[in-house]
Specification:
Layout (H helix, E strand, L loop, with lengths): L6 E6 L2 E7 L9 H6 L1 H5 L7 E5 L5 H13 L2 E6 L4 H6 L9 H7 L3 E4 L13 H15 L5 E3 L9 H18 L4 E8 L3 H13 L5 E8 L3 H12 L8 E2 L13 H14 L8 H13 L7 E6 L6 H15 L1
Parallel strand pairs: 2-10, 3-4, 3-6, 4-5, 7-8, 7-10, 8-9
Antiparallel strand pairs: 1-2
Helix pairs in contact: 3-5, 7-8, 10-11
Bound molecules: pyridoxal-5'-phosphate (PLP).
Length: 325
């Protein structure tokens, strides 16, 4: 279950590259989150009745956790900083645009807007910190065995279980293809997936097998991503290589040039990538290839899912294009 995604070949930036189709793992539980939450799916947490997490109201972790909670019969409390009027209005109309928020709501998730003005949260800026402040309240009602706290975006050691399996799948595919030098590229948010993959490949490294992880930052810039890696593992010999295309992107902001690239890849390859992380990833990889890097290596791009958020992103892009006219 949730393993062995297929690998496609596409033409990109004037050469042939491979795409690992983790978006095809499962319709409800796909991509990055299928790998990161695999641990919770396959293990039996027999006393758990509630899970608590946090993130953006549009995040695919919200949707995936709502599916996980529904499958396991758990209640999900998901803390968000803010829910836009637009998203809230989607709950009033039928049919609503399917999004991570509307679908998670339909799955019974409690999506809770944090009240930052509460004295309890004074000086607190991050959602994960707010959740730590709420923890003692939860422990008055639940024992440690009954409740699971999952950090924002699945940034925790539990993510290792599924990401190592992804690493294993890639290594057996590499061997079957007789590939000796491979660059695996994936855009990073928290950097958890890229880091755990690089750790796995380092363990498999031999003189005849060279697999490296290349990534780029989509949130906060290269230095921020570097810090994220160090927080997960201080040993920088297992950190992935961070690339950029010279632009400092802001997460969730619209970039028409990136939308054009995303559309071009959709047309030429027939593959729909996500509209938050992948346009940045594709642009960075394109400039890396065009700079003549990776000439003697095969490239495998990991499609990390996240497609449910595309409908709202596409309508935002279309509104921006209309306003330009
Ligand atoms: C579609 C997609 N791509 C990339 C990422 C980034 O993954 P990570 O936070 O492990 O760097 C995420 C994470 O939420 C994602 O959902």
């Amino acid at each position: 279950m949730l393993r062995h995604s297929p690998t496609d070949t596409i033409n990109f930036a004037g050469r042939s590259i491979f795409v690992k189709r983790d978006d095809k793992l499962h319709p409800d539980f796909s991509g990055n989150k299928a790998r990161k939450f695999y641990h919770f799916l396959i293990n039996d947490f027999k006393n758990v009745t509630r899970i608590v997490s946090s993130g953006s109201a549009q995040a695919n972790s919200l949707y995936s956790l709502s599916v996980l909670a529904k499958m396991k019969g758990w209640q999900l409390d998901y803390y968000v900083s803010h829910i836009s009027k637009y998203l809230k209005s989607q709950l009033q109309i039928t049919p609503a645009i399917a999004s991570n928020y509307t679908q998670a709501h339909a799955n019974g998730a409690n999506i809770i807007e944090v009240d930052w003005s509460s004295p309890k949260l004074s000086g607190c800026k991050h959602l994960d910190d707010a959740v730590s402040i709420f923890k003692p309240e939860y422990y008055k009602q639940y024992t440690q065995q009954e409740i699971l706290f999952i950090p924002e975006g699945g940034r925790c050691d539990y993510a290792n279980t599924g990401i190592y399996l992804l690493g294993e799948e890639i290594i057996s595919w590499v061997k079957a293809q007789n590939i000796t030098a491979l660059s695996v590229f994936l855009p990073s948010g928290t950097g958890t997936t890229a880091l755990f993959l690089q750790q796995y490949f380092k363990e498999c490294q031999t003189e005849l097998l060279d697999v490296q992880v290349l990534t780029c930052s989509t949130v906060g810039g290269d230095l921020y991503l570097q810090k994220q890696f160090s927080a997960l593992n201080p040993d920088d010999s297992v950190h992935p290589t961070i690339l950029n295309d010279g632009v400092k992107y802001h997460f969730g902001k619209l970039y028409l040039a990136l939308f054009a690239l995303w559309n071009e890849v959709l047309t030429t390859s027939g593959i729909e990538f996500d509209l938050l992380y992948d346009p940045i990833g594709l642009s960075v990889l394109k400039s890396h290839i065009e700079a003549g890097q990776c000439q003697n290596r095969q490239i495998l791009y990991i499609h990390q899912g996240g497609l449910l958020g595309n409908a709202t992103m596409q309508s935002r892009y279309h509104r921006k294009l209309m306003n330009k006219r």
